[in-house]
Amino acid sequence: MRQRDYPGSDLVIEQTLAPGSNYRRYVASYQSDGLKIFGLLTVPAGRKPAGGWPVIIFNHGYIPPSQYRTTERYVAYVDGFASHGYIVFKPDYRGHGSSEGQPSSAYGSPGYTVDVLNAVTTLQRYPDADRSRIGMWGHSLGGNITLRALVIDPRIKVAVIWAGVTATYQDLLENWHRPPGSGPPPSTTRSWRQDWVARYGRPEQNPRFWNSISPMSYLA
Q1: CA 47 to CA 100: how far, in whole Å?
Q2: Could you report the per-residue pLDDT of 3-34, keeping only the tens digit for each?
Q3: pTM: predicted TM-score of the whole model, two decimal places
Q4: Distance CA 81, CA 86 (A)
């Protein structure tokens, strides 16, 4: 993933929402892998600094894609950053809300990570943003995505991972199982585990492969 490009696109304002205490709120969209991806955008209402506002890409945790709504969940967290002078962009990963594409597993597919890396490029092109100060905040599944993005893209200068699903693949395969009814359909959850083990063997049998795709292997 370090070898490919993440061109992003211009950020398109799709809808103007009621403002926050000292910031503006929008539903915006951008392009990722040929898909139209939506997200929640907040922009401080004060006088823009000379270099632009610092940016936080806000990577949300697992929410069933069919239940996900752009303006719901994480409201207080977004407000905390937005009211203190940050542009915040919370991408709706592919297949979530109005975003195009099919939802997938963050642990068995690069799609969601590709979406947030294209969001980085998109926010770098946004006129009010300081392109040199872009960070990430990720919760749970979003923490895993954030860690992946960090080890791929040096443009991300700082990140916070809150209760992230960050572990080796051996841990994920053996110990990470959602309670019944809390995740995607079982066939979706099992497919990447079963397919990859059938194709590459278990981590203890083929550590070279599993280490090569784990972000944990690239931490200094």
Answers
A1: 35
A2: 999 999 999 999 999 999 999 999 999 999 99
A3: 0.93
A4: 6
